[in-house]
Each structure stands twice: as structure tokens, then as C-alpha cells.
Specification:
The protein has nine helices and twelve strands. The protein has about 290 residues and is of the alpha/beta class. The strands form two sheets. A ten-stranded mixed β-sheet has the order 3-2-1-4-5-12-9-6-7-8, sandwiched between helices. α3 packs parallel to α4 and α8 packs parallel to α9. It starts with a strand and ends with a strand. About 5% of the residues have low confidence.
Length: about 290
């Protein structure tokens, strides 16, 4: 089954930037675009005319207007629209389930990045089974210029980042871009050493060469499947979030894996994804594990 790229809109500047990003990506991948808005009736005592049907009409017009604008810019693109009544988290998660990816707007830098990292957005990212791409207001096609890379974080064993790596390679292939695969490492605590681990490190020539070997092993199957995609292997000592953000100036898209866990106050995403979402200047794709 061919899935569309789904963009969530709400009339804000950032959601319209996300819609345009989604349209460009749909054109590149030869996919349809689905434009959705989550909506729930709100009663306003001061506005008697705002009945459920009236409010639904306003929302449908907002979505239709956005779709018309993007169809005008990309005339060959197949675009459908839906107004989905219900709570935002459940509605967006359901919409993402049938999509190649869900694309949403993000409200910029700082400790609060708008609804995408608020209670709604964080739960959407943590609970969906599909990639979620977050786009800031002001994003333009020029940001995808030649020479800018698709940056992806790799950590752990090859299978731990397989989904994020595949997403990065597919995206780079559709854009004619280079993949920069980043693996960060830190010195292990003294108690982590054992005769077995020391032997492995000696055979690898030290800590950093061992990390380079691990990155190479994770990339090997993707290199075979995407032989035309140039790859830069980037191994650097430091925290994963800091190392990824240090190369954000080269990136047209940052791709990170998702490590979601639940707490007493709801779903939370991993610290690396959380930090990159707050501070990366380019769009960020958060990819759940396979």
C-alpha cells in the first residue's frame, strides 16, 4: 500500500511552513499529500453563531485554503483534505498511522517549542509508529540547496538505528544529497572495563577506531542498498545531542531515532531527540524503531 505524506495544519505560520515542506517531499517521492486538522467543538458564550456546524465550517475552510495554496505551487501534486474531530493527540496519532510520515509545525527555539514539545506534541512523537517531521516557521526551499546534508544520528548496535538510517538514506536519495552519519562516544567509566572489553579495544586499535568500526557496520547494508548516495562518516567524542547540534549548520534535515518511555505524567521521548528538537535550526525527523 502506498501511503501519503500527511501534514497537520492549524492556520499558523509554522504549520503552513510544515505543509509546504511536506508538499515538496511528496513531489520528490512521487506520493500524495494529505492535509489534516484536528478539531473539537468549543463553546463560546459571547458568540451565539459559533455552533458546532459553524465552527466545523471555519475549520474546513482553513484546511481547504491551505490545500489550494499548496496545489497552486505544486500543480502536479495530488492533495486531499480532512477535518478530524477529536482530541489532538489521538487524532494526530491515528492520522500518522496511515502515512509515510507526519509533518507538523514547530514554534522555534527555546525551552518551549510550541505544541510539538508540549503535552500534545510530545505524546504524538512518543506514541506514533511512523516518522514525525517537525518544521519551523520560516523554512524555505532554499534551505535544501545542494551541499547541505541529511544528518542522521547512529548509536548502539546496527539494529538500534536501522529505521533512522533508512529514513535518512531514502530522503537523501530523493534529494540527491549526502548523508552525514554521526556517532558520538564518551569515555566509559573505569568500572566498565573488563579483560574481554579491553581485548576488543586493543584489537580495534583504541576507543575511537572501535566506534568507527561500529558506525561502518551499521552503514554497510544501507551503502549496498543506496550505492549512489554519498556518505560522510562522522565519529566524535562528546554527548550525542551536542555532537549532532555541532553539525546542524550543514544540515537540510536532521534525523534522530526515538526512545520513548512512559512516566507517571505521560509519554516522554529520549534526551537526544528532545535536545535536537529544541535547538536544531533545520527540520528534524524523529523516527520510531522498527
Amino acid at each position: 500500500m502506498t501511503r501519503p505524506i500527511t501534514a497537520g495544519v492549524d492556520g499558523s505560520e509554522e504549520s503552513l511552513a510544515a505543509l509546504d515542506w511536506a508538499a515538496r517531499e511528496a513531489v520528490r517521492r512521487d506520493l500524495a499529500l494529505r492535509v489534516v486538522q484536528a478539531w473539537r467543538f468549543e463553546a463560546y458564550d459571547a458568540v451565539e453563531v459559533a455552533t458546532p456546524d459553524t465552527q466545523a465550517g471555519w475549520v474546513r475552510e482553513t484546511v481547504s485554503e491551505a490545500a489550494r495554496a499548496v496545489t497552486g505551487r505544486y500543480p502536479g501534486l495530488t492533495v486531499t483534505t480532512d477535518v478530524l474531530e477529536g482530541a489532538a493527540v489521538e487524532t494526530l496519532v491515528d492520522a500518522a498511522a496511515d502515512a509515510e510520515m507526519l509533518v507538523l509545525g514547530s514554534r522555534g527555539h527555546g525551552p518551549v517549542v510550541g505544541f510539538l514539545l508540549g503535552s500534545v506534541g510530545q505524546q504524538v512523537i512518543a506514541e506514533t509508529t511512523r516518522p514525525v517531521v517537525l518544521v519551523r516557521a520560516g523554512d524555505r526551499p532554499a534551505a535544501e540547496a545542494a551541499g547541505r546534508e541529511v544528518v542522521v544520528g547512529q548509536q548502539g548496535e546496527p539494529e538500534d538505528s536501522a529505521a533512522a538510517l533508512r529514513f535518512a538514506f531514502e530522503t537523501a536519495a530523493s534529494r540527491g544529497a549526502t548523508v552525514r552519519a554521526v556517532r558520538a562516544w564518551t569515555l566509559p567509566p573505569v568500572f566498565a572495563y573488563s579483560p574481554g572489553s579491553l581485548k576488543l579495544l586493543d584489537e580495534a586499535g583504541g576507543l575511537e577506531p572501535r566506534e568507527q568500526q561500529a558506525l561502518g557496520a551499521a552503514l554497510e547494508p544501507l551503502r549496498e542498498q543506496f550505492p549512489d548516495v554519498p556518505v560522510v562518516e562522522h565519529v566524535e567524542m562528546g554527548s550525542a545531542g551536542q555532537v549532532l547540534l555541532s553539525v546542524t549548520g550543514r544540515a537540510q534535515l536532521m534525523v534522530v531515532g526515538r526512545r520513548a518511555h512512559r512516566t507517571a505524567v505521560g509519554a516522554r521521548i529520549g534526551s537526544v531527540a528532545y535536545g535536537v528538537l529544541h535547538h536544531a535550526e533545520c527540520p528534524v525527523a524523529v523516527v520510531p524503531p522498527v
